[in-house]
């Protein structure tokens, strides 16, 4: 498939790398190509700049959001949560495009552990679906470390990836990608429509506290049923 | 131990039953004993009225919150979230008492799936600790169906119970009770102080959506690490 990955950070790089490995046609979208390429230092999380990533991934090219989206049937939304709406606004015509939404509404502005800027009776996922009604949003993969998103078998035990979205066909496409990544059918839990993103985005507060307590982000939530 | 269980619903009954089985001295606390005993029909969830429970549990008696709390070293707080503060206010002197807080700040007033009346940058757990500063709150067990709280081995696989609280000694007492219930050391995850209840209370929105999607509440979250 033609897939545009929006976002040049660690999540975007992990997804772009893995999708290209799986022989998809991958482009990365960013707000300003020149600015993105001008970065020469790792970000605060130690992720190399996108220029370094592109050097080692010659099949992947960097474009504006609009140019990246043009031929893509799937957009992997891997920007910061607060940049998601602007990125999609810049992307042009989204009619019928499938948006695999990995974002979380994290608000880092207050210091300490981030809070959520959309929660409880709303979610970023449904706000984006409302703002871009002709695109088909599927929220998934937003509840774990990016290394596990694209390689769930690395965990060494089964865990859960949630799927939320209004369109069955779009969820089927995303589920197909999840399976290419190595997710088992039994690990994929379709929670229902996009409002169920209220549930999965609310895993972030507990994810962050597990990470703080254990100093280890290499875990995933499992819905354990004994089966 | 002398343990007072606050709340006559399904959670309170499950905890009182199990603690008495384990040979603790158990009393149940309620706002108005006469009113509680006057109920003759199961509640909306099918839980039998407390009078039926008491008939089959002759070692357990029902008292006002204050009378129940008087000799208790541990109070199991199993009221509705919105009734928690009032129950503790009615309990009298809480100095040094350990409160095993199982409540969740669920707001059912809007219909549909409940939202949280405390979330994101606060939690019911920390609000109660602030309101009753001389008691030692330990938030735990609030993230699962009550049958699994008191009998985790019934699930047939390992899962996770979270612990949040400011006092190490109080957490040790609660952890001891968890182990009596059958929780393994490796399943008990101490997240830190009482503010980490923001994390575990925020599991409710996803718990509710897993339950809605699967029509099955017999599951628990596991922090899967592959170990």
Task: Write the SSE topology.
Two copies of one chain form a homodimer.
Chain A: E1 2-6, H1 10-21, E2 25-30, H2 33-38, H3 50-55, E3 61-64, H4 65-70, E4 74-77, H5 84-89, E5 98-101, E6 106-107, E7 115-116, H6 124-131, E8 136-140, H7 146-149, E9 161-165, H8 168-181, E10 188-192, H9 197-201, H10 204-214, E11 220-224
Q: Which regions of chain A are unreliable across 5 or more consecutive residues at pLDDT < 50?
A: none
Name the shape of chain A in a single word: globular
Largest sheet of chain A: 8 strands, mixed
| Secondary-structure content class of chain A | alpha/beta
Percentage of residues in helical conformation of chain A: 25-40%
- CATH T-level topology of chain A: Rossmann fold
CATH class of chain A: Alpha Beta
> If you compute it from the alpha carbons, what radius of gyration of chain A comes out, rounded to the nearest whole angstrom?
16 Å
**Which percent band covers the strand fraction of chain A?**
15-25%
Kindly state the number of beta strands of chain A: 11
Element pattern of chain A in H and E: EHEHHEHEHEEEHEHEHEHHE
């Amino acid at each position: 498939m033609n897939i545009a990955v929006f976002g040049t950070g660690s999540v975007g790089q992990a997804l772009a790398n893995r999708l290209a490995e799986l022989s998809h046609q991958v482009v990365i979208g960013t707000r300003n190509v020149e600015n993105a390429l001008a970065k020469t230092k790792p970000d605060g999380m130690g992720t190399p700049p996108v220029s370094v990533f592109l050097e080692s991934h010659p099949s992947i090219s960097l474009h504006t959001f609009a140019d990246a989206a043009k031929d893509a049937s799937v957009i992997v939304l891997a920007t910061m949560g607060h940049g998601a709406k602007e990125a999609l606004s810049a992307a042009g015509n989204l009619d019928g495009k499938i948006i695999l939404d990995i974002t979380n509404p994290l608000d880092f502005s207050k210091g300490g552990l981030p809070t959520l800027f959309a929660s409880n009776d709303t979610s970023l996922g449904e706000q984006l679906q409302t703002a871009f009604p002709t695109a088909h949003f599927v929220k998934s993969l937003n509840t774990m470390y990016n290394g596990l998103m694209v390689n769930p078998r690395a965990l060494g035990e089964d865990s859960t990836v949630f799927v939320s979205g209004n369109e069955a066909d779009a969820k089927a496409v995303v589920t197909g990608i999840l399976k290419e990544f190595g997710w088992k059918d039994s690990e994929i839990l379709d929670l229902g429509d996009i409002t169920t993103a209220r549930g999965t985005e609310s895993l972030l507060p507990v994810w962050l506290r597990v990470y703080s307590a254990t100093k280890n982000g290499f875990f995933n939530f499992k819905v354990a049923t004994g089966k």
